[in-house]
Design a protein that fits this description.
single chain, alpha/beta, eight-stranded parallel barrel, 8 helices, 10 strands
Length: 303
Amino acid sequence: MSLRLSTVILPYRRWNEGGRSAWTRAEQLGFHTGYTYDHLSWRSFRDGPWFGAVPTLTAAAAVTDDLRLGTLVTSPNFRHPVTLAKELISLDDISGGRVTLGIGAGGTGFDATALGQEPWTPRERADRFAEFVQLLDRLLIEDSPSGVSYEGDYYSAHEARNIPGCVQRPRLPFAVAATGPRGLRLAARYGQAWVTTGDPKLYENGTPEQSVQAIRGQAERLADACAAIGRDVSSVDKILLTGFTPDRGRPLQSLDAFVDFAGRHRELGFTEIVIHWPIPDSDFAADEKVFEQIAMEAPGQLR
């Protein structure tokens, strides 16, 4: 299988001031999927413009035809499965079945306290994530007239109806972001894809070689989680979101640098590499001409 190349477009620009053009250009460049972050605000962008993921993807669906669309990633930090399911079914319908839900446990950033709550402990985040994914799976699959009822420790649903369900059957695909054992078990059970950004402990002082080894270990643990439930790990797509390994922005410095980087990760079994749309004066700054050259030429070199 050819290695797919996708991009993530951060929602920091007004739609008519560069937002729309990025999504249409992503389709023209041949990217497999255009993702966006699903945050209320994020890191250095907190004090500037930042728009909502679902409305952004809905607008993107209206101006593209073939580009898949998705989140990297949605989390329980400010979402509830019942309301999220309704939005996703609507987005899947509007896009003609082009949506992938990237989903993760969330962290301790701004989203964790924006609704006025105390940040959850790592264990509570993991507990909530497990329940969130399980309920969301049911809500997106079960489109019976009686709806879905559920009573959990953190989330509840009472006769929640989602007729007519997703365009994609039995539901739109989940890309589960995970590195720990519980998250990898969720990816094995519910994910059509698995997402990693590498090992965050290596970002500051690790080497690219150490990062590859760490990611290899993550992929092996995913395989173990799949084997434990009788699933073939090759049925799970493997997605690497770049920019958070010790390589940082170096893979986008030239076509050759990217092909080398992507090739090393393809050998680990990855089926999709995601690169950030260039943002000047940020951690995602990159030469736009080189970025477009990578988009157009790298996939052919990675077949």
